């Protein structure tokens, strides 16, 4: 044990690692929410349930089809994205011109249905999903032991998050997406199929939740409640970063995970509420969020 100024560095860095891992999942889930709301103005309360669906699909694919983790990491987000496409096309699009509250209530109801169906089928207890063989073990660092799979989560989530940000903010496709949501009639006049673009964008935002679910399966217990437990925290992070801010969702997700980890070491009693306390302070000082734009 190494202690500096009364601080146990092994325990501190261990909690920072846990916080960064949680922050990686927060970033992925809040990024999906930010894309869906920022580009489509849809409040998707089913994001947590779809995150849970991704974890369960990875587990079931391994158990019944023999599809390993690496294939699941590709196939499951596609499958969850297809579920999102069907949701947008047949459920959300008919109420697209109504108040945002309608989409919130609809997706909240869908989340309850999905969670209830999985609870009825698999029960409420958690199921285990083993770490892939290639990522077992870890590395001994000066102040901590770093499991390989935890390091993979951090690296993969950062690459996916910032790759998504670059695609939306810096490419022609991203420019079409932003223009199509801001002025759909003008884009349709140029021959762009805006409804298809909206559907695919919603599917991509949902696929990020499926991707996070697959990566979370070996870390957390795969259970029907795993999505509802994290959803409220993720919505708070989206609010802190600024509703619809792509970069804000990524930075705030990672940052709040680190703050949560530090709080678990210095003041554990506040670790479950620190993110909501930060949200309250941010809303009082900057109602649009840290990276959001004032209306």
TrEMBL record:
UniProtKB keywords: Amino-acid transport, Cell membrane, Membrane, Transmembrane, Transmembrane helix, Transport
CDD domains assigned to the protein according to its UniProt record, in alphabetical order: TM_PBP1_LivH_like (cd06582)
InterPro entries on file: ABC_transp_permease, BCAA_transport_permease
Sequence intervals crossing the membrane: 12-37, 71-92, 104-129, 149-168, 189-218, 230-254, 266-285
Keyword Nuclease: no
Membrane association type: Multi-pass membrane protein
Record's subcellular location: Cell inner membrane
Major subcellular location class: membrane
The UniProt record lists the keyword Mitochondrion: no
Pfam families membership: BPD_transp_2 (PF02653)
Family: Belongs to the binding-protein-dependent transport system permease family. LivHM subfamily.
Protein name from the UniProt record: Branched-chain amino acid ABC transporter permease
Lineage: Bacteria, Pseudomonadati, Pseudomonadota, Gammaproteobacteria, Cellvibrionales
